[in-house]
# Entry
Amino acid sequence: MPDSNQDHLTGSGGSGCAIIGAGPAGLTAGLYAARAGYTVALLERLAPGGQAATTWRVDNYPGVPQVNGAELVQKMADQALGFGVGLRSEDVMRIEPGPVHRIVTSSGSLQARAVILASGASHRHLQIPGEEKLQGAACPIAPPATELFSGTCPWP
Ligand SMILES: Cc1cc2nc3c(=O)[nH]c(=O)nc-3n(C[C@H](O)[C@H](O)[C@H](O)COP(=O)(O)OP(=O)(O)OC[C@H]3O[C@@H](n4cnc5c(N)ncnc54)[C@H](O)[C@@H]3O)c2cc1C
# Structure
C-alpha cells in the first residue's frame, strides 16, 4: 500500500509510477501499482505483450493449461488497463534520476516518483535467411519445458 508520504504527481506529464515495458512483467507491475493507488504510466515502444505475444502456444501459465500467447497477454493488458494503468506508446530513450525522475521518450518526457524497469530481453538471432518469417511460427527457439526437463527432448 502507498505510505502517507507518497506523492501522486499531477498536472501535465506527471505520474506517480512509470513502468518501462509492457510485457508480462510490466503489465503485472502496473496492475499491482494501480490497485495500490498509484497513478501509473506504462511506456511501451511496440505493442503491449512483449515476447509472450509472439508465441502461438504457452503451456505453463498457472491456471491456464494451454493458450495462445497473444490471447494471454491481451487479457493481461485488458486487466491492467481496467485498473486505470495509462498505456503510452513511447520509446524510452533515457532516465534522469532525481527526487523526481525524468523519463525522456521518443516523443517528449514525463516525471515520476518511482520507475520500474520491465524492459525484458531479446534473444540472439541466427542471422539466416527466412528466420524472421518463421520466428514464433514454425521455427522453435527452445523445446517445450516438459520435454526439456523430462529428458524426452527430441532436439540435440
Ligand atoms: C517465441 C517465444 C516463445 C515463448 N514461449 C514461452 C512459453 O511457452 N512459456 C513461458 O513461460 N515463456 C515463454 N517465452 C518467454 C516469455 O515470453 C518471456 O519470459 C516473457 O515475455 C518476459 O516478460 P518480460 O515482461 O520480462 O519481458 P518482455 O516480454 O521482453 O517485454 C519487455 C517489453 O519492454 C519493451 N521495451 C524494451 N525497452 C523499451 C524502451 N526503451 N521503451 C519502451 N518499451 C521498451 C519491449 O518492447 C517489450 O514489449 C517465450 C518467448 C518467445 C520469444
